[in-house]
Amino acid sequence: MRAGIIGGGFMALVHARALRALGVEVAGVASSSQASAVMAAERIGATRAFPTVGELIASSDVEVVHVCSPNSTHATFAAQAVAAGKAVVCEKPLATTVEDALRLARAASEAGVPTAVPFVYRFYPVVREIRARVMRGDIGRPLLLHGSYLQDWLADPAETDWRVSSTLGGASRAFADIGVHWCDVVEFVTGQRITRLNAKMTTAFGSRGNEPESVETEDIVTMMFETDGQASGSLMVSQVSSGRKNRLAFSIDGEAGALAFNQEEPNTLWAGSTTENRIIHTGSSAMSLGDVQRLTLLPPGHPQGYQDAFNAFLADAYGRFEGLPVRDVPTFEDGLRAALLTDAVTRSSQLESWVDVSSLTRVAAPVSSVQAPVS
Ligand code: SOE
């Protein structure tokens, strides 16, 4: 299959590297203008630069469309690709509103178009190992799910980016950008769904860079939650935490032990017990077979990282696009789930109260039966 990429930023490069690793040709790139598409095509190593997004989507050279442009454009471009019958890999957020995410997920489902959303932290061997151990009952019933997703690239108020603008990035920034990754990976390893939450969104810096407009998107989210498995949870999300680069960390504390992961040190699993704590390395014989082994590329002590996880995500997504029975590829349904959680966080923060999100767990049902929450 041949790919076309919309966008030319950091994530477009990550997608292009993963496509190269897979041996997939990047047939073309489109960006906000012909000139930026030419520059992006050179950087990315794409065969050609398309003058417009419409021409890339319509091209018979492009079978899979990768949407890596600013958030506010995702829903429109992805919907155009779905209408053209193309497989779509769309960056999160799928859309900046629940309604648009729902419409898009439904359109893809009705058109029978295969989709993927890069919730790539599912593709670390250690994350799969935690999932295997939780499912096997090694730690008993999960009681407490806790952790954080912290970054510092916006800790200096002189820094800004298109993601800061609610017009380009959407009303939620920190939660929609990184909080949703944490929720996806914790729901993935536990098999549980967040049913109720109480969140507070805080904008630490009301102005950024030289921009005259005041900042409306949040830098910080604090959240308590409960799951359909009767676990309690707490999550801290921040893009202004000095020293924390991309620290997605979680701990699943169960009746009979705890398992923890930290994305900044992704090759070790921390297994806690009341008698003895253990550090287990990727590739060691203590790791499970199956998916854990399949995703392990190297012997212990040879670190795998973010790009490897992304490459594994894309390999599985393309496997699904080609009709292989690959499991656990995050799709538009998972993108919709993230939009629903973002909406719940936003409502909770506005109402300053717990919001019941139990109806959101129905995302697993056929997409056409999912109800948008009443705001
Ligand atoms: C920026 O905050 C960002 O690149 C996110 O957009 C990604 O989803 C995350 O994986 C890393 O940080």
UniProtKB/TrEMBL annotation:
Keywords: NAD, Oxidoreductase. Residues 1-117 form the Gfo/Idh/MocA-like oxidoreductase N-terminal domain. The keyword Electron transport does not apply. GO terms for molecular function: nucleotide binding; oxidoreductase activity. The keyword Metal-binding does not apply. Pfam families: GFO_IDH_MocA, GFO_IDH_MocA_C3. Residues 127-259 form the GFO/IDH/MocA-like oxidoreductase domain. PANTHER family: BCDNA.GH03377. This is Oxidoreductase domain protein.
